[in-house]
Write a structure and sequence with these properties.
This protein is of the alpha+beta class and 450 residues long. It has 16 helices and 18 strands. Strand 16 (409-413) and strand 17 (419-421) form a beta hairpin. The protein is elongated.
Length: 450
């Protein structure tokens, strides 16, 4: 059988890369739980009609169909979820009677989209979400909270400095309407393409698709260029001379979020008025996140406020959430060599085997070390000790344990060559060697990390 080809868009990490991913997931889970979010996992599929209601995603949805279904049977009306927010909204509606509101959950799970694979964009990917959902109302301070929780995650990850960019959909829509747009949604889609096609082409789209006059299109471009770490953006928007009640509402809401975040964690949130987000269930605050020095890579974390995604006709469950694209983050950290793992295996110690007759003794030593939480392997073959040491070195295992003919135990650090007598009932490695660690690969990148 020939070597199988890689399947584009479905990442499979090497062992050392998987250690990086696990370090990210461990940090994410710890920070989320530290802030009181409960873990959930939802099913992989949702009704297709529900998936297609949530924005410009219909061409990317994977549907389910039995291999031997009859030609006239069609699909089962089910689709793999393309994010974790839509299934979470469905979960809330189904289980509202068993939940205490505001309900706080985190979810770390796979999702699927049939988009064109490229750097950081995959057809199968892992996301890590937090959401807070209320019953009928949800206070704005949760819009600050979820962003700062994610900012804390980034501060503890081995990655370049992250900046969470924030805007408000009401602000954008109100400005477009006040500037003369006949189709605010088209204007939002056009502005969302600024980084990809540039201001000249966006201006043309604003005029041809959103119905804006040339002056109004320029005002929209001027608005989209506004960015600030504090609430000074309010006066800069006002200075453009556009008025609309929805704009007033959006400006007040965004100022409240940015102002509160600036007091708690200065610089973590930056108002960026070109941020739009493509999914149409967002109704207020929206977030995107860039890594400093890697802005061209795009957003690695996004989300926003949604007021009507979950409703049973009597009760509405507004929410706000933010999602870390774990696979997308891996794409830049691993793909560009920004991080390195201290070793490619969890194993800390390899117990040498003198001969096959004494393997049972080596197994007992390993069991004693494992009982104290030290990841341990036993050598696969009773080779010469030099070969066993080289085996440990190739595996990335830092220590080799020996038992000599006189019954004396010793452990060798194969990196330094130091060897000392040891007792398997009491010996422990330095804390930094107990588990693999992940760090930024170069001092230059470490300067960007808080």
């Amino acid at each position: 059988m020939s070597r199988p080809a890689a399947l584009s868009g479905f990442p499979e990490w090497l062992p050392s890369e998987r250690i990086v991913e696990l370090a990210i997931l461990d940090t994410v889970r710890r920070v989320f739980e530290l802030h009181g979010f409960s873990s959930l996992e939802t099913r992989a599929v949702e009704p297709l009609e529900q998936m297609l209601r949530k924005g410009e995603i219909d061409k990317e949805v994977y549907v389910l169909r039995r291999l031997h279904a009859a030609s006239d049977e069609g699909d089962a009306g089910l689709a793999l979820h393309f994010d974790l927010t839509v299934p979470f909204a469905r979960y809330v509606l189904q289980n509202a009677g068993h939940l205490e509101f505001p309900f706080r959950r985190y979810q770390i799970q796979k999702a699927w989209r049939g988009e064109r694979p490229q750097e950081g964009r995959y057809r199968e990917f892992t996301q890590a979400d937090i959401d807070i959902v209320g019953r009928d109302t949800l206070a704005f301070h949760h819009e600050v909270e979820v962003a700062l929780v994610m900012a804390q995650v980034f501060r503890e990850l081995p990655c370049p400095q992250a900046v969470i960019l924030v805007n408000n959909r009401k602000l954008a829509e109100g400005f477009f309407l006040g500037a003369g747009a006949s189709d605010a949604a088209a204007a939002m889609r056009a502005i969302d393409k600024l980084d990809k096609i540039g201001p000249l082409k966006v201006a043309a789209l604003l005029e041809s698709e959103a119905g804006l006059p040339a002056e109004g299109a320029q005002q929209c471009l001027d608005m989209a260029a506004i960015r600030s770490e504090d609430t000074s953006f309010v006066e800069r928007v006002r200075a453009l001379g556009v008025e609309h009640p929805l704009l007033d509402e959006g400006l007040a809401a965004l100022a409240a979020v940015v102002g509160a975040a600036h007091e708690r964690m200065p610089g973590a949130l930056v108002a960026d008025l070109k941020i739009a987000r493509g999914l149409d269930y967002y109704t207020g605050t929206v977030y995107e996140t860039q890594l400093t020095g890697y802005e061209s890579f795009g957003s690695v974390c996004s989300g926003g406020r949604y007021d009507s995604l979950a409703s049973d006709g009597k009760t509405t469950y507004p929410g706000v959430g933010i999602s870390l694209g774990v696979s997308r983050l891996m794409g830049v950290l691993v793909g560009r060599g920004l991080v390195t793992a201290s070793r490619s295996v969890p194993t800390c110690v390899l117990v040498a085997v003198s001969d096959e007759e004494s393997r049972r003794t080596s197994d007992d030593i390993a069991a004693a070390l494992r009982a104290r939480g030290i990841s341990t392997e036993v050598a696969p073959k009773a080779d010469k000790f030099g070969k066993q040491i080289r085996h440990a070195d190739r595996r990335g295992i830092p220590y080799v344990w020996f038992l000599d003919a006189d019954g004396v135990h010793s452990v060798k650090d194969i990196r330094s060559g130091d060897q000392e007598t040891a007792d398997p009932a009491t010996w422990s490695p330095p804390q930094e060697d107990l588990h693999p660690s992940v760090r930024l690969a170069s001092p230059e990148n470490e300067e960007n990390h808080p």
